[in-house]
Design goal:
Length: 241
């Protein structure tokens, strides 16, 4: 052992000789021979048949579960948007109904009441028309409404109804109106005074199938009666007016 420890290391030349010779670079032809050849489709099918892929390998190579769903979401076309409706009715239909309702109310006021065109009643109002007046003058049908128009226009000369504002919603119209006329006949139990009177009122119209079926009216009868009473108590002042 002492002799082995005392032996000096071999010289550098001997160490170089002991090293394995370096590998020579292979030529291009050798490199082509060393590269594995690509398997043909038939060979790949045979290889798959001999070595079927395990379920674990299939899960590793399968795309993420949500990727296919996300792709389908983007590829599918957006469903058509539902039509916007108001209370289940198309807006165009709503506008058409509102236009008809507004026109009927204008004819009702301007032609029937202001001009006294009674022949227009069947074209504007339904056969079963209901009129609920604040003075207790309820009329049903064309004949009753016609008599009411004649009574009011006979009691108030130059009778005029002016629409100050109108709001139409669906098949209903709401109006704020001003009524004027000269008291020349019995009205609300008062004999003719010759006085010019005026009062405010509000009306609601209901339209069905292109005709007015109901008119609900609320007028300031207290103001009208006060004017008639003043004219009765002071006839000279009424004549001056």
């Amino acid at each position: 052992a002492k002799q082995r420890q005392q032996q000096p290391p071999p010289p550098a030349k001997q160490r170089q000789q002991q090293l394995p010779p370096p590998r020579m670079a292979s030529s291009p032809q050798q490199q082509q021979q060393q590269q594995p050849r690509a398997a043909s489709p038939q060979q790949q099918q045979q290889r798959v048949a001999r070595h079927p892929q395990s379920p674990q390998a299939k899960r590793q190579h399968a795309p993420p579960q949500g990727a296919h769903q996300e792709r389908q979401v983007f590829e599918e076309k957006e469903p058509p948007k539902p039509a916007v409706t108001v209370n289940g009715i198309d807006p165009v239909v709503q506008m058409e109904r509102a236009a008809v309702c507004r026109e009927l109310v204008k004819q009702y006021v301007a032609d029937i009441w202001n001009r006294g065109d009674l022949e227009l009643i069947p074209k504007v109002c339904a056969r079963g028309l209901r009129f609920n007046g604040s003075a207790g003058m309820d009329r049903v049908g064309h004949d009753g409404f016609s008599r009411m128009v004649q009574t009011i226009r006979g009691s108030l000369e130059d009778y005029h109804c002016e629409i100050h504002s109108m709001v139409v919603e669906g098949n209903k119209a709401f109006c704020r109106m001003r009524f004027t006329g000269r008291h020349v006949g019995q009205l609300l139990g008062y004999e003719a005074t010759g006085k010019h009177v005026s009062w405010m009122g509000a009306s609601e119209f209901t339209v069905v199938d292109g005709l007015i079926v109901k008119v609900w009216e609320l007028g300031d009868m207290a103001s009208l009666e006060h004017q008639l009473r003043e004219a009765t108590d002071h006839p000279s002042e009424a004549e001056a007016l």
